[in-house]
Design brief:
CATH architecture of the largest domain: 4-Layer Sandwich
Structural class: alpha/beta
CATH superfamily of the largest domain: Aminohydrolase, N-terminal nucleophile (Ntn) domain
CATH topology of the largest domain: Glutamine Phosphoribosylpyrophosphate, subunit 1, domain 1
Strand order of the largest sheet: 3-2-4-1-10-9-11-14
Bound molecules: 5-amino-5-deoxy-1-O-phosphono-D-mannitol
Strand content: 15-25%
Number of domains: 3
CATH class of the largest domain: Alpha Beta
Helix content: 25-40%
Number of strands: 24
Radius of gyration: 25 Å
């Protein structure tokens, strides 16, 4: 939530900052603003709405040139998304500019305190108190980094802050607590940003900050300290993707591009994790084999789409390892007083690695002595840093707010973890593991086939654009797939969409079925689990008898569904447990196309942001 860019170097700061904000707009698009140090002062511009509004304002009234600046794209928490509440926020003298991501929980008390000392605050935001406090601290110490340390020690809550001061040109200062901030280090320049995408055009060398750290960036390098002023420990890393990965590459939207990238994302996530003998080599899982053997249960925590991946993982983990596996919404987890100890393996799944609910859940788990394994897509993010081990998904940057390729790669990572547990604990024979691995290796080719045959799905989506409701049904692993299909439609098309376990239909939801209601049904493979398959074929008949318009997603060669399908979507034959990898793709395409037909902007759905860094 909220994208932040800071720059110090030799390039026109405004160009660098605005280009960076364009890459970060997925994090929030309620308003945008910039500040540049120029001519001994501070020049700022900010506008409510998307970045394009700010662009227009800058074209009409250009800011003076300067090589130090910062910018912000906002997902509003405190105060309406208007010009006044847009960042950056200044002090009364207009010498300091601050951008912020997160929530300052004690802002009301600080605001009252500042008002008591005669400060006039111009916005309803929690952020503005920081610019005023920084100005006061700076006038006492004359050092922006020291002023930032002093102010941070007074703040409660989660925050990333980046600030510049007209009286200390040549420096940009940042701070982080429970909110992301990465540093890009170039030759004669440095970048502070919420995400490496903001500076990937200029450098791929990055520094991951720790918790409660302040960074002081100058042209000749960066200095990191703790909030108390002690030297800060950091980790340097090289970003293993380039600028082209963060571009649309000829697609109309990032979402379409990311859907198309799924075969490669799955293949990349498998790469290097299986040796020639078919044994899993998950070097990243630094949790000792002994600990994994002794673990008594697995608990998976995640939010949104990642939670759906977790629900699917439960089937694989329990089936392959015979370990009990609980799946919990991260936002509920710690409030339930869950039963955890040293024999619990907690798996935290997060694309961004910054989701606050998931972070809080894993912290709670570690406090109780559990070992935490993160499944994450973002190098340098907080969740892997705070976990005992991490298995990275290699999906590349996911920019569209709706998660697609990250979901598929999270599934692959979950299957790998499940098989690895089976391998370590001896509940799966080597040849059984090799069979599953062979199937997984064949998934990218199957995904290519699915993607080549999506035109009828797009056509169908366009014809349903005026519907009010779409239901999704599935059984077994098809149930979370149905939930995911419904989530995609809700967040992109702003339609009422619900996913149900098909067996639950007769316990209530079937009352929703009326003439011509579209119901998408995910049919499990008829091979292997014929009981499951037979049951869902009956469910399709039941809803059709009540007038539903059935959209059936079924394996190639499954003829039993043909008489009951108003629309039939074929997917390649895939073993039941792995079927979500191929069955989800038509649902992504369906939601994307339907939302587009309704005139919605698929990459940036209303009210949402890609990275949810507040609880
Ligand atoms: O970055 P995370 O994977 O932790 O994000 C979790 C959810 O916020 C995310 O999956 C969200 O539900 C997506 N917008 C769904 O498409």
């Amino acid at each position: 939530m909220c994208g932040i860019v800071g720059y110090v170097g030799f390039r026109p700061a405004l160009d660098v900052v605005v280009a960076g904000l364009k890459r970060l707009e997925y994090r929030g698009y309620d308003s945008a603003g910039v500040a540049v140090l120029a001519d001994g002062g501070l020049a700022t511009a900010k506008r409510a709405g998307k970045l394009v509004n700010l662009d227009k304002a800058l074209a009409e009234a250009p800011l003076p040139g300067g090589t130090v600046g910062l910018g912000h794209t906002r997902w509003a928490t405190h105060g309406a998304p208007n010009d006044a509440n847009a960042h950056p926020h200044l002090d009364n003298a207009g010498r300091v500019a601050v951008v912020h991501n997160g929530i300052i929980e004690n802002f009301a008390a600080l605001r009252a305190e500042l008002a008591g000392r005669g400060h006039a605050l111009a916005s309803e935001t929690d952020t503005e108190v920081v610019s005023h406090l920084l100005a006061e601290a700076f006038s006492a110490c004359g050092d922006l980094a020291e002023a930032m340390r002093q102010v941070c020690r007074r703040l409660d809550g989660a925050f990333t802050l980046v600030a510049v001061h007209a009286d200390e040109p040549g420096v940009v200062v940042g701070a982080r607590r429970n909110s992301p901030l990465v540093v890009g280090v170039g030759d004669g320049e440095a970048f502070l940003a919420s995400d490496v995408a903001a500076f990937i055009d200029h450098t791929r060398e990055a520094v991951e900050l720790g918790q409660d750290q302040v960074v002081e960036a100058r042209r000749d390098g960066v200095t990191v300290t703790t909030f108390d002023g002690a030297p800060g420990e950091v980790r340097n890393f090289h970003v293993d993707w380039d600028a082209s990965a963060a571009e649309k590459g000829g697609y109309a939207s990032f979402m379409l591009k990311e859907i198309a990238e799924q075969p490669k994302a799955v293949a990349d996530t498998l790469l290097g994790r299986i040796d020639e003998a078919g044994t899993l080599v998950l070097d990243e899982v630094r949790i000792p084999a002994e600990t994994l053997r002794e673990a008594e249960k697995v608990v998976i925590v995640a939010c949104g789409t990642a939670f759906h991946a977790a629900l699917i993982a439960k089937y694989a983990i329990e089936h392959w390892t015979r370990m009990p596996c609980e799946v919990e919404l991260a936002s509920e987890f710690r409030y339930r007083d869950p039963i955890l100890d040293q024999r619990t393996l907690v798996v935290a799944i997060s694309q961004s690695g910054e989701t606050m609910d998931t972070l809080m859940a894993l912290r709670h788990a570690r406090e109780q002595g559990a070992r935490v394994l993160a499944i994450c897509n973002t190098n340098g993010s907080t969740i892997p840093r705070e976990s005992d081990a991490v298995l990275y998904t290699h999906a590349g940057p996911e920019v569209a707010v709706a998660s697609t390729k990250a979901f598929l790669t999270q599934l692959v990572a979950c299957y790998l973890v499940a098989l690895y547990l089976g391998q370590v604990r001896g509940t799966k024979w080597g040849d059984e593991i090799r069979d599953v691995v062979r199937e997984l290796s064949g998934v990218p080719a199957r995904l290519e086939r699915v993607l080549e045959t999506m035109e009828p799905v797009r056509e169908l989506a366009r014809t349903l654009a005026d519907k009010r409701t779409v239901l999704f049904l599935g059984r077994h692993v098809g149930y979370p797939v149905a939930l995911e299909g419904a989530l995609k439609l809700k967040e992109l098309a702003y339609m009422h969409a619900e996913g149900f376990a098909a067996g639950e239909l007769k316990h209530g939801p079937i009352a929703l079925v009326e003439r011509d209601l579209p119901v998408v049904v995910v049919v499990p493979s008829p091979r292997g689990r014929s009981v499951l398959h037979g049951k869902i074929v009956s469910n399709i008949q039941e809803i059709r008898a009540r007038g539903a318009r059935t959209v059936v997603i079924a394996e190639e060669g499954d003829e039993s569904v043909v008489p009951y399908a108003d629309h039939l979507v074929r997917i390649p034959a895939t073993p039941t447990l792995l079927q979500p990898l191929v069955a989800t793709v038509p649902l992504q395409v369906f939601a994307c196309e339907l939302a587009t037909a309704r005139g919605n902007e698929v990459d940036q759905p209303r009210n949402l942001a890609k990275s949810v860094t507040v609880e």
